[in-house]
């Protein structure tokens, strides 16, 4: 026999399935449902919480409950990458700096850099936490928080990792200045100049910059837009070449947006064990999934300490605070030392503020609320691409994050398109910067977490016309 609140939840679910309340629409208020169904407000709230837990609806602060959006697309996926599996020096990354500078140009419509617009971030929540910690830790905040970093923050990160299925102690972690520094420290700890690093293809250009700066060589591994790095190709590369480490972004990869299955992650860690290579895991987008459950991390299956798990709050809370971390396993002492000699410490108040926000549950509440906003942003961009871009255009269908990898007709040169786009006030990221060998000449990456307005819509229309 169903409980009363379950009956109310079933009635609301039926109304949603019948299209009475469509995706993105607001449900009646708690009081109105209570009056309509002649039940208590507490019963209605229990029913709404049940639907929220099932991912059917979402609560929006001071606005009520809405039907969750689900990603839909009529666009075909890009073809699977076919890079040349041979170690090569990383070149051609000079264009990346100009892209980074363009992200600060307020005259451009920002579709290039993978940076969420302020409306996607809990700025007011952060302000309160920073203000509170500045007063409470006035003297401590004036000093260095030497590696491994704030114990309060490491406790909260370890708790979240443990709750996600990867048992972690605070003593396993080193706080860093963002995920980029975590990855740099990881590579410095495991590799020497001239060593070979296996990477996904395409991959985030920031990884390529680090590899280039450390005088390492990259070997690009074919990567599926939905399943991730090819384990067969990676194994073949390890058999042919002395691969020292492999860098992967298992959850909502930038730029492809895929989420590796648990089986794929487990086999990847096993492969690293078999060939005695370090596995550097970049999980910076892991909290920004479109599903109900946060995906697992590859380090969960690490029994030999060879996985260096890297992440940060730059995409989910604030890029400006520059707070990241690394769980370096067997490389802990070396990473801790390298962090110290590189820049002594990570800003103290920023660490304490995020620790407080995590401890009080504000971060988890924010993640539940913002998930649907990212889905809507990605879907809006997909719809615009299908309308304004050439008919042969293909596009990824990400499981999380906020970027799209777009395959354009072969006649289009992404570098030239990027230059023309800047001339008309639009910033985009061209495909070649996501490859160690400047592949993907007819690909671009677009940021969907932008302030969607007439300027963005006009920019996408202009982009489509430039392609013609």
Q: Could you characterize what this model shows?
A:
The chain has 468 residues and is of the alpha/beta class. It contains 16 helices and 17 strands. The chain folds into three domains: 4-67, Winged helix-like DNA-binding domain superfamily/Winged helix DNA-binding domain (Arc Repressor Mutant, subunit A, Orthogonal Bundle), CATH 1.10.10; 88-120 and 369-467, Aspartate Aminotransferase, domain 1 (Alpha-Beta Complex), CATH 3.90.1150; 123-363, Aspartate Aminotransferase, domain 2, CATH 3.40.640.10. 42% of the residues lie in helices and 15% in strands. The strands form four sheets. Strands 3, 5, 6, 7, 8, 9, 10, 11 and 12 form a nine-stranded mixed β-sheet that branches. Strands 13-14-17-16 form a four-stranded antiparallel β-sheet, with helices on one face. Strand 13 and strand 14 form a beta hairpin. The longest helix is centred in the last third of the chain and has 27 residues, at 362-388. It is globular and about 75 Å long. The N and C termini lie far apart (62 Å). The model has no long low-confidence stretch (mean pLDDT 91).
Looking at this protein, list some descriptive labels.
468 residues; 42% helix; alpha/beta; 16 helices; Aspartate Aminotransferase, domain 2; Arc Repressor Mutant, subunit A; Aspartate Aminotransferase, domain 1
Q: What is this structure, in a nutshell?
A:
The protein is of the alpha/beta class and 468 residues long.
Please describe the topology of this protein:
Layout (H helix, E strand, L loop, with lengths): L3 H14 L12 H8 L3 H13 L3 E4 L3 E4 L20 E2 L4 H9 L6 E2 L12 H14 L1 H4 L9 H13 L10 E3 L1 H13 L5 E6 L3 H9 L3 E8 L3 E2 L1 H10 L2 E6 L13 H14 L2 E5 L24 E6 L11 E4 L4 H12 L4 H12 L2 H27 L5 E2 L7 E5 L6 H10 L2 E2 L1 E2 L12 E5 L6 H14 L1
Parallel strand pairs: 4-15, 6-7, 6-9, 9-10, 10-11
Antiparallel strand pairs: 1-2, 3-7, 5-12, 7-8, 11-12, 13-14, 14-17, 16-17
Helix pairs in contact: 1-3, 2-3, 5-13, 7-13, 8-9, 8-12, 10-11
């Amino acid at each position: 026999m169903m409980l009363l609140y379950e009956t109310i939840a079933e009635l609301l679910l039926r109304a949603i399935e019948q299209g009475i309340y469509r995706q993105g629409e607001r449900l009646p208020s708690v009081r109105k449902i209570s009056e309509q169904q002649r039940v208590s407000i507490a019963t209605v709230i229990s029913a709404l919480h049940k639907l929220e837990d099932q991912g059917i609806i979402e609560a929006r602060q001071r606005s009520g409950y809405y039907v969750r959006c689900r990603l839909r697309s009529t666009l075909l996926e890009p073809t699977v990458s076919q890079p040349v599996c041979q170690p090569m020096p990383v070149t051609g990354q000079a264009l990346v700096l100009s892209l980074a500078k363009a992200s600060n140009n307020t005259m451009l419509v920002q579709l290039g850099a993978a940076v969420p617009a302020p409306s996607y971030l809990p700025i007011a929540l952060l302000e309160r936490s920073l203000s509170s910690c500045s007063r409470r830790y006035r003297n401590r905040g004036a000093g260095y928080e030497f590696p491994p970093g704030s114990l309060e923050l490491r406790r909260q990160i370890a708790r979240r990792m443990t709750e996600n299925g990867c048992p972690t102690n605070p003593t396993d972690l080193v706080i860093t200045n963002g995920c980029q520094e975590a990855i740099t420290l990881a590579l410095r700890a495991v590799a020497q100049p001239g060593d070979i690093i296996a990477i996904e293809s395409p991959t985030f250009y920031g990884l390529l910059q680090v590899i280039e700066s450390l005088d390492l060589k990259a070997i690009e591994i074919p990567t599926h837009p939905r399943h991730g790095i090819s384990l067969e190709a990676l194994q073949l590369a390890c058999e042919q070449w002395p691969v020292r480490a492999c860098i992967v972004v298992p959850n909502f990869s930038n730029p492809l947006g895929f989420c590796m299955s648990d089986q794929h992650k487990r086999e990847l860690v096993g492969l690293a064990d078999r060939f005695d290579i370090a596995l550097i895991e970049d999980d910076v987008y892991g909290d920004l999934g479109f599903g109900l459950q946060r995906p697992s991390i590859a380090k969960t299956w690490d029994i030999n300490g060879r996985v260096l798990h890297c992440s940060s709050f730059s995409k989910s809370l604030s890029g400006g605070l520059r707070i990241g971390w690394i769980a370096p396993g067997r490389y802990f002492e070396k990473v801790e030392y390298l962090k110290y000699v590189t820049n002594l410490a990570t800003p103290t108040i920023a660490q304490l503020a995020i620790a407080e926000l995590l401890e009080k549950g504000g971060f988890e509440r924010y993640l539940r609320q913002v998930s649907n906003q990212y889905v809507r942003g990605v879907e809006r961009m997909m719809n615009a691409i299908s309308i304004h871009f050439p008919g042969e255009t293909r596009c990824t269908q990400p499981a999380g994050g906020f970027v799209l990898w777009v395959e354009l007709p072969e006649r289009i040169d992404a570098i030239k398109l990027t230059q023309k786009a800047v001339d008309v006030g639009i910033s985009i990221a061209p495909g070649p910067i996501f490859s160690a060998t400047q592949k993907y000449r007819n690909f671009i990456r677009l940021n969907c977490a932008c302030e969607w307005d007439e300027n963005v819509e006009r920019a996408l229309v202009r982009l489509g016309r430039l392609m013609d």
